[in-house]
Amino acid sequence: MDRWAAARPDVEMFAQIGGGDEPRHMRWARSVTPAEFADLVARSTIIVAHAGMGSIISAAEAGKTIVLLPRFASLKEHTTDHQVHTAKRFMNRPGIHIAMNDDELAEAIDAAMASVGATHQLLPRTAPDAFVARIRAVLLNGASAPQTNRS
Questions:
Q1: Would you call 14 helix, strand, or coil by DSSP?
Q2: How many CA atoms lie within 13 A of 107 on its CB side?
Q3: Burial of 125 (0-12, 13-18, 19+ CB in 10 A)
Q4: Beta-strand pair 65-68/46-49
Q5: Burial class of 146 by CB neighbour count within 10 A (0 to 12, 13 to 18, 19+)
Q6: Do the beta carbons of residue 111 and residue 97 sit within 8 Å?
Q7: Is 82:50 a contact under the CB 8 Å cutoff?
Q8: Does the model's pTM come out above 0.85?
Q9: Over the stretch 72-89, which tens digit does the pLDDT of each residue have?
Q10: What pLDDT, on a 0 to 100 scale, did the predictor assign at position 10?
């Protein structure tokens, strides 16, 4: 992200970095309060985040385009690869751009910036009917719920 920022000094950026290295080419903080986060999201053009559902939902609720860079267990960034699976699940959805590694990040950000203003809905407002039916079956019938295609 810092490399992308260095090449685009005209773009205002902010990073919440946690325990990461301090960026040299953008404003940053180790952490922000929930209110500060909400304000940053509201004022953003795009969001670049790890592939956590909280990030995806925040972008969807704010109507923002998002770039996801999943954390990997093999790199000791997380304990499991659930973010890799999340990123793959949301691949090719309008308004969601995926970078599976640092080398793909600049291209994903550029694609996201180019798509700003396009109308898209990151997440549907309701769960798919098949999913609701599966949940209903489990609640009503217990473990004997029928298995269906997981789309």
A1: strand
A2: 7
A3: exposed
A4: parallel
A5: exposed
A6: yes
A7: no
A8: no
A9: 766 666 677 788 889 999
A10: 93
